[in-house]
Amino acid sequence: MIDIRKLSIFNKMAKEGGNTVANHMSQMTGMNTEMEITKINFIDIPDIKTHVGHDEQIGIYIEMQEPPHGHVLFLFNADSAKRLAAGMLGDMGGTDPDSEGFTEMEKSAIQEIGNIMTSGFIDGWANVLETTIDMSTPNFTFGPGSGTVDEIIGDRDSDMALMFDSRVHAQDADINVKVYTFPQLEELVGLMQRLEV
Predict the structure, then answer these.
(1) pTM for the full predicted model
(2) What pLDDT digit, counting tens, does each position of 85-136 carry?
(3) CA 115 centroid distance within chain
(4) Which of 44, 63, 110, 179 has the fewest CB atoms within 10 Å, counting from its CB?
(5) Contact 19/124 with Cβ under 8 angstroms?
């Protein structure tokens, strides 16, 4: 149970997470970047795999090692990943927009973007929650989105996850990114209850 007046904190966390990602990406890539979060949904964990679907997607996830423990997962499709990589690499070359797979340069650019996204999002949350949140090194997956969710949540079936529909606007690239967060809800609510609204 959470005080209804505290629900605005979810919006703040989304906004601050998105802004921090965009700022980090703008600094790292020199591309003017915005991350807009259009919708926040609560989803029962058993329903998430259906929601994510079985299409092949790039997944980047981290584990939060301090409250509100749990995971954060970014999912986007291969076309989006290629566009982001091309935007980041610019004139350095090493991209092949027409190939099915990823070049080594594209892979390392996508990893770097994954690092920026996950750390930026968690930093934004930590700012709003007035705490620090250490996180694991990001893990990368490429395969059915539902399989990535399985990898993260295993047999947790009693909880809910927060889903943020978002779009990253970067130079020459417009990317749909879904952000799924699997915090320990009791811990998250505990952190939110301490805040003055």
Answers:
(1) 0.84
(2) 887 777 777 777 677 778 888 888 888 888 888 899 999 999 999 999 999 9
(3) 10
(4) 44
(5) yes
R_g over Cα of the chain: 16
Q: Output phi, psi for 76, to 5 deg.
A: -150, 160
Q: What is the DSSP letter of 132?
A: -
**Using CA atoms, how far apart are residues 114 and 160, in angstroms rounded to an integer?**
24
What is the rounded end-to-end Cα distance, in angstroms, of the chain? 16
According to DSSP, the residues that pair with 176 across neighbouring strands are 167
Q: What is the mean pLDDT of residues 66-76?
A: 90
Spatial neighbors of 56 by CB under 8 A, at least 6 apart, are 77, 78, 142, 143, 144, 145
Residue 19: phi and psi, rounded to 5, are -65, -40
Distance CA 142, CA 178 (A): 15
| Tokens coding 109 | 């650019």
With both helix axes pointing from N to C terminus, report the angle between 78-89 and 8-29 in degrees, rounded to the nearest 10.
50
Tokens of 187: 């811990």
How far is 86 from 115, CA to CA, in rounded Å? 17
50-88 exposure pattern, b = at least 16 Cβ within 10 A, e = fewer = ebbeeeebbbbbbbbeebbebbbbbbbbbebbbbbbbbb
Q: Are 61 and 152 in contact (CB under 8 A)?
A: yes
What pLDDT was estimated at residue 66? 93
Q: Please give the sequence-ordered ranges of beta strands (E in DSSP) within 104-172, or none if there are none.
A: 139-144, 160-170
Please give the helix or strand (H or E) that residue 44 lies within, else none: strand 34-44
Query: Over 70: is that where the pLDDT of 164 sits?
Result: yes
